[in-house]
Amino acid sequence: MPNDASSTRFQSVLAPWMDQFLQEKHACGYAYHEPIRILHRLDDFLVQEGLTTVELPRCVARNWLAKKPHESASTQQQRITLIRQFSTFLLRAGYPAYMPDSTLAARNPSTFVPEC
After folding, report:
1. Do the beta carbons of residue 84 and residue 102 sit within 8 Å?
2. At 61, phi and psi to the nearest 5?
3. Are the beta carbons of 114 and 38 closer than 8 angstroms?
4. 97: helix, strand or coil
5. pTM, whole model, 2 decimals?
6. What's the pLDDT tens digit per position in 25-42?
7. Measured between alpha carbons, how far is 29 from 93 in angstroms, rounded to an integer?
8. What is the spatial distance between Cα 22 and Cα 1, in angstroms, rounded to a whole number?
9. Please, is 35 exposed, middle or buried when counting C-beta atoms within 10 Å of its C-beta (0-12, 13-18, 19+)?
10. Would you place residue 81 in the very low, low, confident or very high pLDDT band (cuts 50, 70, 90)?
11. Does residue 2 contact residue 19 with C-beta atoms inside 8 Å?
C-alpha cells in the first residue's frame, strides 16, 4: 500500500493509490490539473457507491463513465481517458481494475468543413 501523508485529500478506499498515481504523473512532468479535479469527482463517487475493496469494478466504473445529459462527448472522453490511465496504474500494482474500451465515449458530430 502506498504510504503518503497527503492521502487525506481523497476519501475513498482508493485514496492512497490515487495519491500515488498523481505522484507518478507529476514525477513524469505532467501538470495534471484537470485530471486532478476529475479524480476528486471519481473519489466522491466511489465513497457514495460504498466501495470497500481495493479494486475498480466494471459496474462501478461504467456507472461513473456514463455520459451525463449536460456534458459534451469530449468531457466524457476526458473521464474515460483518466479511468484508463488509473486502471493501468492499479493493474500494474496488482489490483483488479476495469479497463474501458476507448470507443466507449459518445461521438461529437463532425464540425469539419472542407474548403472548396
Report:
1. yes
2. -65, -45
3. no
4. strand
5. 0.81
6. 999 998 888 899 999 999
7. 21
8. 15
9. buried
10. very high
11. yes
Rg of the chain taking only CA atoms, in angstroms: 16
Give 1's Cβ-side CA count (13 Å radius): 11
CA 107/CA 105 separation, integer angstroms? 6
Q: Which of 30-34, 53-57, 76-80 has the lowest mean pLDDT?
A: 30-34
Average pLDDT, the chain: 86
Closest C-alpha to 97, from 62, 47, 66: 62
CB neighbour list of residue 49: distance below 8 Å, 6 or more residues apart: 60, 63
3-state SS track over 37-64: HHHHHHHHHHHHHCCCCCCECHHHHHHH
DSSP SS3 for 93: coil
β-strand partners of 56: 97
pLDDT tier for residue 113 given thresholds of 50, 70 and 90: low
Residue with grid cell 479524480, as numbered in its chain: 39
Enumerate the β-bridge partners of residue 97: 56
